[in-house]
Design a protein that fits this description.
single chain, five-stranded antiparallel β-sheet, four-stranded mixed β-sheet, 9 helices
Amino acid sequence: MEPRAGVSKQDIREQIWGYMESQNLADFPRPVHHRIPNFKSKKTLLVPTPRLRTGLFNKITPPPGATKDILRKCATSQGVRNYSVPIGLDSRVLVDLVVVGSVAVSEKGWRIGKGEGYADLEYAMMVSMGAVSKETPVVTIVHDCQVVDIPEELVEEHDITVDYILTPTRVIATGCKRPKPMGITWFKISLEMMEKIPILRSLRAREQQAGKDVTLQGEHQHLPEPGCQQTVPLSVGRRPPDTPGPETNSMEAAPGSPPGEGAPLAADVYVGNLPGDARVSDLKRALRELGSVPLRLTWQGPRRRAFLHYPDSAAAQQAVSCLQGLRLGTDTLRVALARQQRDK
């Protein structure tokens, strides 16, 4: 099945759902529209807590001497309620293999779900609680008709990709190199979702205490004027006790001046020659991968530069050394201490 040019995610969903219905490929529940399709392939699927209402994980424990009928029920939402024990955030559970459902998937590892974002969120929550790492394989089980070409531009930063695709006739190793989500993308989470999923509130409180940016969708949003800077919290882990946070040390700067004008610049790092189409998330991801995460990041995308704010001059100098030769796309970035850049 080949999707037509210029398609959207919803176009691909409708194509898969319509085909599976017309060919009678889908199993219960029917119709398959707006669902992850079920079909028989003699494989057992284990699912997380339905819709995350009572937590993320539930450990299924069938009763002694369980019949085949009871074992089947254990893989249903009723089975989760009747034959499982919830696993808390402090359980330190390690997941060896992640199995996700899909509406459509490509041989490159791009995945499209039913549009509600639960699989992406479940994976991000597992990352946040340390249950999975970038080495944990992700597998999806689909019908052969669900394997299609998906344009890469449809894949977003929070989308989970898959490493293996299992169909009734094939096992496909995708070789996908695209980074998986590094954790929960809080600005994609709505207040309504927070109300529905209590475990999200617990995770958010933990990450907020650790100094991370946990701003929700539609919460205190501020779009900078063209040519102005955008200051973004970018802390990972606990902030040093004596280091003021973004709220008390905003380091506001006039357009055209490095942030912190009139304040010490020894702990600020200049990053220049950013690609014209670069996003702040691209730089944040690169900093995390290199282990050079600052306390805050001041983004001046229209001027193709950014400033990184570290707790002290030693940390800033170490970051400059670590980031030499850093590339975004085809462009090599210019990295220097902000004070030195101002003197130039």
